[in-house]
């Protein structure tokens, strides 16, 4: 008998059994080889290991299909609703269940389990296979001789803790609800990002234009071409080695964050000469391996310090949030930055060169209105992403505690 889990639904007290996965259904491997000549834009969907992520299928914008002739030749490998697909190479052990949407698809180098419904529920088996317990088993059994593939003979050794069908369904339903909530917040996050992208295109003038396509009511004047030296002022205050202010970093994806959180550990640097970065001031790394530079606002603390390679500045009769947005997203300005930076290897954009650039801006009141609108969108994106991350942590915790530690 296997252990019982730390967390159980009320009314379930029976002991769990340990069953080899080979006892729980039919198992086979997906296509061993395939040819790009059979790829098309219709037909049977091809499922690869990389399409299975966090318990669900994610095919991106360009799913791959197999032509009708090839799919017909491999009809016996077509997936049915309820099949559990497990990653064979890559994030080995990760699994997802075939739904109506993926029915008729064919896997490439994936492990397929067609559960015996009288013994085990598909969603329950999938939930267990996505636990750290199973993934650690898969990793350990698959890497002993230099391999990093979860082969069939390895998978055959997998032992699954199995409660009654009624308890399986209760666990499956709970995990399914969590998955739906995660998907909901991820979808809302992605939709808001798309809305932000669209509105940036419409609320900033196109090259050669003096007005954007979309404006707030009451604003009709042309946007004026202004030199950045008239709109921003450098803030130059440095620290010595005994400064105790938090160390910050400016990330392309995260914005300004605590360096310790960004790297997951305390960095030991000589901070002499670091720049002070007050709240709501802007900064950017003045050197890049390419020609892309990211301008971020400090919103994470009242005052921190950042490397001397990050100039700090604020608005001069201009809204600094709006200015940073133009520098990051206005195509015409981004292209000018690419021409303005210097260097043959690593590109450098000095603050002096930045100030020489021209950008097109509206009145201060319109700048403020636009920046507030995009700040609201950013807050929504952050809210949904945070909720999504929190739910993933809940799911991870529950997966580890709704199954026995051994089995």
Which sequence of strands runs across the widest sheet? 2-11-8-9
Give the fraction of residues assigned to helices. 25-40%
What's the count of strands? 24
The tally of domains stands at 3
Characterize the structure shown.
The protein has 407 residues and is of the alpha+beta class. It has 3 domains: 17-162, DNA methylase specificity domains (Adenine-n6-DNA-methyltransferase TaqI, Chain A, domain 2, Alpha-Beta Complex), CATH 3.90.220; 165-216 and 362-407, Helix Hairpins; 224-360, DNA methylase specificity domains (Adenine-n6-DNA-methyltransferase TaqI, Chain A, domain 2, Alpha-Beta Complex), CATH 3.90.220. 33% of the residues lie in helices and 19% in strands. The protein has 10 helices and 24 strands. The strands form 9 sheets. The protein has a 4-stranded antiparallel β-sheet, covered by helices on one side. Strands 3-7-4-10 form a 4-stranded mixed β-sheet. Helix 7 (320-329) packs across helix 8 and helix 7 (320-329) packs across helix 10 (364-401). It is elongated and about 75 Å long. It starts with 16 loop residues before the first strand and ends in a 6-residue tail after the last helix.
